[in-house]
Automatic annotation (TrEMBL):
Membrane topology, record value: Peripheral membrane protein
Top EC class for this record: hydrolase
Protein's name in the database: Signal recognition particle receptor FtsY
Pfam families: SRP54, SRP54_N
Function: Involved in targeting and insertion of nascent membrane proteins into the cytoplasmic membrane. Acts as a receptor for the complex formed by the signal recognition particle (SRP) and the ribosome-nascent chain (RNC).
Gene giving rise to this polypeptide: ftsY
Length: 317
């Protein structure tokens, strides 16, 4: 928990506000479950199990949390319900620590190679293009040069939206229009990134392909053309998930991790939902680091995920 205080006051307030619905729902249910009870017994644990599952933490992760609490109850012999908040907080923080989720204080690119190439995947409607625009804005704000590639060529709206973000942020967008070859867009975006000495290239991809085989083939082709310029590209495959869809986000994560080597997650729209527990479950089940979370409409409401600050906001009284 050493990273408390690294977030600015504004970012922390935004995170607190973004997780408010999840927190109120979770602790409202927890308060009712322990009302009139003084110790953590089987009945309280059953109630807690139901609360975690209905908060979209997921069945497997819930079972893991309950087992850990049962072990602590057995070890400590007596545990009052007043201590349950703190124990839950510790166990959830521990789970996130185990799941390769490193604490970042700010938007940073790895040292070394340039440009750093991020391939962004995810179904339509999860906030993929908006996430790319906000990432571009945040990195540009840090003095980094960014090139965007509009390779979601199945939807005119996706290409146009990315172009608008490019204009707004002041970064070049490589686009060939609708129904063009996505890999050709990716090729030109990486080529421009290399030729102009850009720090970062972010390439959008189609969110809807008819089958997983189509998806795998399309992403493999995009990777191959990128590697003509940078053998190790893409350096990162970022899967964007809509946190408000709860269990649907798990299904999407399952499909995309089977289809391609997802290396990081962005979980959006947490401010509009009580399903923020999905961050904990997805991080635990897929062992892929949650890198960014979306907690509001503004550019700065796309935040780097900091597990210490997340758990603090979730449990804040």
């Amino acid at each position: 928990m050493a990273l408390f205080g690294l977030f600015s006051k504004d970012k922390k307030e935004s995170l607190d506000k973004g997780l408010e619905k999840t927190k109120e729902s979770f602790f409202g249910k927890l308060g009712r479950a322990v009302a009139g009870k003084s110790k953590v017994d089987d009945e309280v644990l059953d109630e807690l199990e139901e609360i975690l599952i209905t908060s979209d933490v997921g069945v497997e992760t819930t079972v893991k949390v309950i087992q850990r609490i049962e072990e602590r109850v057995a070890r400590d012999k007596y545990m009052g319900t007043s201590e349950l908040d703190q124990i839950l907080r510790e166990e959830i923080a521990e789970l996130l620590t185990e799941n390769n989720t490193e604490d970042l204080a700010d938007f940073k690119l790895p040292e070394g190679h340039r440009p750093h190439v991020i391939l962004v995947v995810g179904v339509n409607g999860v906030g993929k293009t908006t996430t790319i625009g906000k990432l571009a804005a945040q990195f540009k704000g840090k003095g980094k040069s960014v090139v965007l590639g509009a390779a979601d060529t199945f939807r005119a709206a996706a290409v146009d939206q990315l172009k608008l973000w490019g204009e707004r942020v002041g970064v070049p967008v490589i686009a060939h229009g609708m129904n063009t070859d996505p890999s050709a867009v990716a090729f030109d975006a990486v080529k421009q990134g290399v030729e102009t000495g850009a720090d970062l290239v972010i390439v959008d991809t189609a969110g809807r392909l008819h089958t997983k085989v189509n998806l795998m083939n399309e992403l493999s082709k995009i990777k191959r053309v990128m590697q003509k310029f940078i053998p190790e590209a893409p350096h990162e495959i970022l899967l964007v998930l809509d946190g408000s869809t709860g269990q649907n986000a798990f299904i999407q994560a399952k499909e995309f991790t089977k289809a391609t080597d997802v290396s990081a997650l962005a979980i959006t729209k947490l401010d509009g939902t009580a399903k923020g527990g999905v961050v904990i479950g997805i991080s635990d089940q897929f062992k892929i680091p949650v890198k960014y979370i979306g907690v509001g409409e503004k550019v700065e409401d796309l935040q780097v995920f900091n597990k210490a600050e997340f758990v603090d906001s979730l449990f804040k009284k």
